[in-house]
Amino acid sequence: MTLGSIWDVLGIDRTTDPLVIRRAYGSKLRGLNVETDPAGFMALRSALEGALQLANYAAPEPASTVDNDPDYDFYNFDSLDDVSPPQAHPVYEPQGLSEQPYNDRTSGDRANALSQILAARGVKAGWDYYTMLMARGDIALDDQTSFAMLVLERAVDPKLLPAPDFLMIYDRLGLEHSPWRFEGRAALQAQVQSRVAALHWLEKLRALAAKRARKNEKYEVLAARLFLHQRRWLRSKGALLEALTRMFAVYHSHAVWLSGDVDTAWLSSLEGRVQRAIRLKKRNAKIVLTIIFIALFADILGVFTKSIVDFFTSK
Length: 315
What we know:
mainly alpha
């Protein structure tokens, strides 16, 4: 691939900033259907690797390496065997891997290191390590899916990673546009899609609560505000109770994925209050119906009694 085509594929001007290059790659990847255009993906990946290599070559070397070091040996290439590509910032590596020469590290070594980091230091540290490996081109194309899934298997757990960071990883991996990454991982795909659906529902609910409570959707807006604990309890209007009941029905299908994003104590209290209000309304309705029935029966009985009395007195 020529220099010109590298930047044309990435859609940016020539640069030595790895961050700009990776952002351009991510932007192009999100709009690429890998299943229907595998050649396009390969070209995009090659452009990324070529651009990062050019950026690494263009990085300025410390002046002391050549200019100020009288013992520098221009013909000693042994020192190049353990040279790591430059990093934008230090990323934690397990001790066993950090002591191993860079060029001797296998894909299995890096996968084990990623697993250790995820278990010991959390998802964010594991994500930093994964993005560093991708930026340096240390993960072969055939291994990229397995590495990404190692991160995602823990990122999907709401107890381990909050919603904004999870959505960032989901977006950076391009999973919305690249379902092929889940091949052979149906259970993980179902979990990821469930959490994404739950978070999208919560965002829609927040958008609804931010609206003005107009007449046609007044009780839906008020119910959303109550659900999100943005206001106190209102009078037990039937339409409000119905709206809240519908919200709780949807919430219970998403609850496991929203434990860290909603006030669960408030929702438990609110749902109890809604159920009590519904039971009270049903009981009051029964009392009203009973009173109406008794009144009608009394009227009918009175008319019948009067008719009987009139009949006998007329004789």
